[in-house]
Amino acid sequence: MQKKNVALVTGASSGIGLVTAQALVRAGYRVFGTSRKPVASSPGVTMLICDVTDEASVRALIEEIMKQAGQIDLVVNNAGIGLLGAAEESSIDQVQRLFDVNVFGVARVVNAVLPIMRKQKSGRIINMSSILGFIPSPFNAFYASTKHAIEGYSESLDHEVRSFGIRVLLVEPGVTRTSFEENLTRADQLLPVYAIDRVRSENLMRKWIEAGDAPQVVADTVVRAATARKPKLRYSAGKQSSQVRSVRRFMPERLVDSIMRKFNEFPA
To answer: Which residue stretches, if any, does this entry annotate as coiled coil (predicted)?
Structure first.
């Protein structure tokens, strides 16, 4: 019997991560998922504890997967948190915590698996980006910054490791129906001057999420990126993501700016 490819999905306890792990099981992978606290394993998914902000925790995770499976063929870096508030309303400590999960957490996992993939002379790393990796988002400035960082990191890294048989890819979801909004971190030094716009922005986000794509749309895109014989660097997950990328790429900057203000209900 042919040995299954082994996949790791971080942040797999719920939402996009959980659905992605399940989709990879159906695609024939042996799947390991991570969570920060103990959770029940989904059928076919072995859940392990990992805090991506702790290098020792990440290395222990990779060692355990190698002990159990002997290889790692695919990594999906999905673990992440949000931060809602005006840029001025977050302390630098709070922003550093956000980057520690969303950017440096990805780098810790990547650094731990690259030696294994180089030895195997194969591997695929999929980093979960967002449409906020290439457009602005008022009252999500620092979250958008982390996704912009992931875009630049991933594209650069892909060139560095491609000669070792490793590819680094980006999946860019649009707004997705998950509990993301409920689990957002709020800015830690709120200012009255931003209150009206902040509340409006949060209400808009809630409305967009209710009308967003199902997590399965993202999961199916991950599977497509994971199994493509000749993978692309970027995969838009869903119609909205494709449309927004086209707007950003082909429309004049002034028109994009006008559209963004209208979409976020700011005065022209």
So the answer is: none
What is residue 77's three-state secondary structure? Answer: strand
In the chain, what percentage of residues exceed pLDDT 90? 86
pTM: 0.94
Give the C-alpha separation, 234 to 57, whole Å: 29
Q: Residue length, the chain?
A: 268
Question: Cα 170–218–36 angle (5° rounding)?
Answer: 85
| Tokens at 50, concatenated | 């990992």
| Strand pairing class (83-84; 45-49) | unpaired
CA distance 221 to 229: 14
236 forms beta bridges with 172
- Judge contact between 27 and 50, C-beta under 8 A: no
Catalytic sites, residue numbers: 13, 129, 143, 147
Would you state the structure tokens that stand for residue 191, as one six-digit string?
């200012």
Q: Using CB atoms within 10 A of its CB, is residue 203 exposed (0-12), middle (13-18) or buried (19+)?
A: exposed
Domains of the chain: 6-238 (3.40.50.720)
Partners of 9 in the β-ladder: 33, 76
The closest alpha carbon to 23, from 50, 2, 42, 38, belongs to 42
Q: Which residues, 6 or more positions from 252, have their beta carbon under 8 angstroms from its beta carbon?
A: none
* pLDDT band at 145; cut points 50, 70, 90: very high
Per-residue pLDDT tens for 199-208?
999 999 889 8
User: Which tokens in the block code for residue 58?
Assistant: 């990440």
For residue range 99-120, list pLDDT tens digits in order: 999 999 999 999 999 999 999 9
